[in-house]
Specification:
By secondary structure, this protein is mainly α. Helix content is about 85%, strand content about 0%. It has helices at about 1-10, 20-55, 60-105. The protein starts with a helix and ends with a helix.
């Protein structure tokens, strides 16, 4: 009866060893960096949009500029969402890697 409990307690020891923790923090840092880069690019793009709109000579030009911006912004958003989804998936894998490795210990097999 206590063998299973001992195995569970042993499985919890050392789960955040250097390799697992490094992978987790590296992925987390990549998520933060991607978010900051996307935000910076988005702000720069919106400022450029404002400048273009202020320089437009006709209503048709305004519509054209806005349409181009909307298409580009949507494509950028989809690409960023895909990239962030992959990074979050990698983060979840890194977070649960110690649990995955300790399952055989919980079951009493190695």
């Amino acid at each position: 009866m206590t063998k299973g409990v001992d195995n569970q307690q042993d499985a919890g020891n050392g789960q955040l060893n250097g390799a697992d923790f490094a992978s987790f923090t590296t992925t987390l840092q990549a998520i933060f960096t991607e978010g900051a880069d996307y935000t910076k690019k988005s702000v720069e793009t919106r400022l450029a949009l404002g400048e273009k709109l202020l320089g437009a000579k006709s209503f048709e030009t305004v519509i054209q500029i806005q349409t181009e911006y909307a298409k580009t912004a949507y494509a950028d958003f989809v690409a960023q969402a895909t990239k962030m989804g992959e990074l979050h998936s990698n983060l979840a894998k890194a977070a649960f890697k110690p649990v995955e490795l300790s399952i055989p210990n919980w079951l009493g097999t190695k």
